[in-house]
Protein backbone atom coordinates (compact mmCIF):
# COMPACT_ATOMS: atom_id res chain seq x y z
CA UNK A 1 0.00 0.00 0.00
CA UNK A 2 1.09 3.53 -0.60
CA UNK A 3 1.07 6.18 2.09
CA UNK A 4 -1.27 8.42 0.10
CA UNK A 5 -4.29 9.31 2.16
CA UNK A 6 -7.75 9.90 0.75
CA UNK A 7 -9.99 10.37 3.74
CA UNK A 8 -10.70 9.39 7.32
CA UNK A 9 -13.45 8.66 9.73
CA UNK A 10 -13.43 10.45 13.06
CA UNK A 11 -12.72 8.19 16.05
CA UNK A 12 -15.55 7.24 18.34
CA UNK A 13 -15.13 7.85 22.10
CA UNK A 14 -15.66 4.22 22.99
CA UNK A 15 -13.71 2.69 20.11
CA UNK A 16 -9.91 3.10 20.34
CA UNK A 17 -9.26 2.51 16.64
CA UNK A 18 -9.93 4.86 13.75
CA UNK A 19 -10.52 4.18 10.08
CA UNK A 20 -8.56 5.82 7.31
CA UNK A 21 -8.84 5.36 3.58
CA UNK A 22 -5.62 5.05 1.63
CA UNK A 23 -4.85 4.06 -1.94
CA UNK A 24 -3.19 0.72 -2.59
CA UNK A 25 -0.52 0.23 -5.27
CA UNK A 26 -3.25 0.01 -7.95
CA UNK A 27 -4.85 3.27 -6.86
CA UNK A 28 -7.87 1.54 -5.34
CA UNK A 29 -9.15 3.02 -2.05
CA UNK A 30 -8.75 0.68 0.91
CA UNK A 31 -10.11 1.39 4.39
CA UNK A 32 -7.89 0.28 7.24
CA UNK A 33 -8.05 0.62 11.02
CA UNK A 34 -5.29 2.57 12.73
CA UNK A 35 -4.59 3.80 16.24
CA UNK A 36 -5.60 7.28 17.35
CA UNK A 37 -1.95 8.35 17.10
CA UNK A 38 -1.72 7.30 13.46
CA UNK A 39 -5.09 8.91 12.78
CA UNK A 40 -3.71 12.16 14.23
CA UNK A 41 -0.77 11.95 11.80
CA UNK A 42 -3.28 11.82 8.92
CA UNK A 43 -5.19 14.81 10.32
CA UNK A 44 -1.99 16.82 10.85
CA UNK A 45 -0.84 15.97 7.34
CA UNK A 46 -4.10 17.23 5.83
CA UNK A 47 -3.84 20.46 7.81
CA UNK A 48 -0.28 21.00 6.62
CA UNK A 49 -1.30 20.33 3.01
CA UNK A 50 -4.16 22.83 3.34
CA UNK A 51 -1.87 25.42 4.98
CA UNK A 52 0.62 24.95 2.14
CA UNK A 53 -2.16 25.26 -0.44
CA UNK A 54 -3.19 28.58 1.10
CA UNK A 55 0.41 29.79 1.17
CA UNK A 56 0.84 28.82 -2.47
CA UNK A 57 -2.35 30.66 -3.34
CA UNK A 58 -1.10 33.80 -1.59
CA UNK A 59 2.18 33.56 -3.50
CA UNK A 60 0.92 32.07 -6.72
CA UNK A 61 3.36 34.00 -8.87
CA UNK A 62 6.08 31.77 -7.32
CA UNK A 63 8.33 34.64 -6.29
CA UNK A 64 9.96 34.39 -2.90
CA UNK A 65 8.94 36.88 -0.23
CA UNK A 66 12.24 38.74 -0.37
CA UNK A 67 12.11 38.90 -4.17
CA UNK A 68 8.60 40.39 -3.95
CA UNK A 69 9.80 42.87 -1.35
CA UNK A 70 12.78 43.92 -3.47
CA UNK A 71 10.52 44.28 -6.51
CA UNK A 72 8.07 46.43 -4.54
CA UNK A 73 10.84 48.60 -3.15
CA UNK A 74 12.39 49.05 -6.58
CA UNK A 75 9.11 50.09 -8.20
CA UNK A 76 7.62 52.30 -5.51
CA UNK A 77 8.36 55.92 -4.83
CA UNK A 78 10.46 56.99 -1.89
CA UNK A 79 7.31 58.33 -0.21
CA UNK A 80 5.56 54.97 -0.62
CA UNK A 81 8.56 53.16 0.86
CA UNK A 82 8.64 55.55 3.80
CA UNK A 83 4.90 55.13 4.39
CA UNK A 84 5.14 51.32 4.23
CA UNK A 85 8.02 51.26 6.71
CA UNK A 86 6.18 53.65 9.03
CA UNK A 87 3.09 51.42 8.91
CA UNK A 88 5.20 48.35 9.70
CA UNK A 89 6.71 50.18 12.70
CA UNK A 90 3.22 51.09 13.94
CA UNK A 91 2.12 47.47 13.64
CA UNK A 92 5.24 46.34 15.51
CA UNK A 93 4.53 48.86 18.27
CA UNK A 94 0.97 47.59 18.55
CA UNK A 95 2.18 43.98 18.70
CA UNK A 96 4.60 44.90 21.49
CA UNK A 97 1.68 46.20 23.55
CA UNK A 98 -0.15 42.86 23.39
CA UNK A 99 0.23 40.14 25.97
CA UNK A 100 2.50 37.33 24.76
CA UNK A 101 -0.52 35.03 24.38
CA UNK A 102 -2.51 37.59 22.38
CA UNK A 103 0.49 38.36 20.14
CA UNK A 104 1.08 34.62 19.54
CA UNK A 105 -2.58 34.02 18.67
CA UNK A 106 -2.68 37.01 16.33
CA UNK A 107 0.49 36.01 14.49
CA UNK A 108 -0.42 32.33 14.26
CA UNK A 109 -3.78 33.15 12.72
CA UNK A 110 -3.21 36.24 10.59
CA UNK A 111 0.46 35.79 9.64
CA UNK A 112 0.90 32.00 9.51
CA UNK A 113 -2.61 30.92 8.54
CA UNK A 114 -3.46 28.59 11.41
CA UNK A 115 -7.17 28.18 12.11
CA UNK A 116 -8.61 29.23 15.43
CA UNK A 117 -9.32 25.57 16.20
CA UNK A 118 -5.69 24.58 15.54
CA UNK A 119 -4.41 27.34 17.79
CA UNK A 120 -6.87 26.37 20.51
CA UNK A 121 -5.66 22.75 20.36
CA UNK A 122 -2.02 23.89 20.55
CA UNK A 123 -2.78 25.91 23.66
CA UNK A 124 -5.29 23.56 25.22
CA UNK A 125 -7.78 26.38 25.02
CA UNK A 126 -11.21 27.10 23.61
CA UNK A 127 -11.74 28.10 19.95
CA UNK A 128 -13.99 31.06 20.80
CA UNK A 129 -11.44 32.39 23.31
CA UNK A 130 -8.66 32.24 20.72
CA UNK A 131 -10.89 33.86 18.08
CA UNK A 132 -11.94 36.67 20.42
CA UNK A 133 -8.32 37.31 21.46
CA UNK A 134 -7.03 37.45 17.87
CA UNK A 135 -9.88 39.68 16.70
CA UNK A 136 -9.39 42.09 19.61
CA UNK A 137 -5.72 42.28 18.63
CA UNK A 138 -6.68 42.99 15.02
CA UNK A 139 -9.03 45.78 16.10
CA UNK A 140 -6.27 47.33 18.23
CA UNK A 141 -3.93 47.37 15.25
CA UNK A 142 -6.62 48.80 12.98
CA UNK A 143 -7.39 51.52 15.55
CA UNK A 144 -3.68 52.36 15.89
CA UNK A 145 -3.28 52.60 12.12
CA UNK A 146 -6.40 54.73 11.75
CA UNK A 147 -5.15 57.27 14.31
What does this structure look like?
The N and C termini lie far apart (59 Å). This protein is of the alpha+beta class and 147 residues long. The longest helix is centred in the first third of the chain and has 23 residues, at 36-58. The radius of gyration is 21 Å and the shape is elongated. It is 64% helix and 13% strand.
Question: What is the alpha-carbon Rg in Å?
Answer: 21 Å
Mean pLDDT: 77
Distance between the termini: 59 Å
Helix content: 55-70%
DSSP, total strands: 3
Instruction: Specify the number of helices.
Output: 6
- Main sheet overview: 3 strands, antiparallel
**Coarse shape:** elongated
Beta-strand share of residues = 5-15%
Give the uncertain stretches in residue-range form.
Answer: 1-8
Within the largest sheet, what's the order of strands? 1-2-3
Structural category: alpha+beta
| Topology order in helix (H) and strand (E) letters | EEEHHHHHH
How do the helices and strands line up, and which of them pair or pack?
Blueprint: E1 5-9, E2 17-23, E3 29-35, H1 36-58, H2 65-75, H3 78-97, H4 100-111, H5 116-123, H6 127-146
Antiparallel strand pairs: 1-2, 2-3
Helix pairs in contact: 3-6, 4-6, 5-6
Quick recap:
64% of the residues lie in helices and 13% in strands.
Which features characterize this protein?
147 residues, alpha+beta, 13% strand, disordered N terminus
Amino acid sequence: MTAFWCGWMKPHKEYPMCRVTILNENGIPVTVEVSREIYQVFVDYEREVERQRKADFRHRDARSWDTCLIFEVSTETLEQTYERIRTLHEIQEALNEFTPKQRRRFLLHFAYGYTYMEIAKMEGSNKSTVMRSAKVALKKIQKKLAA
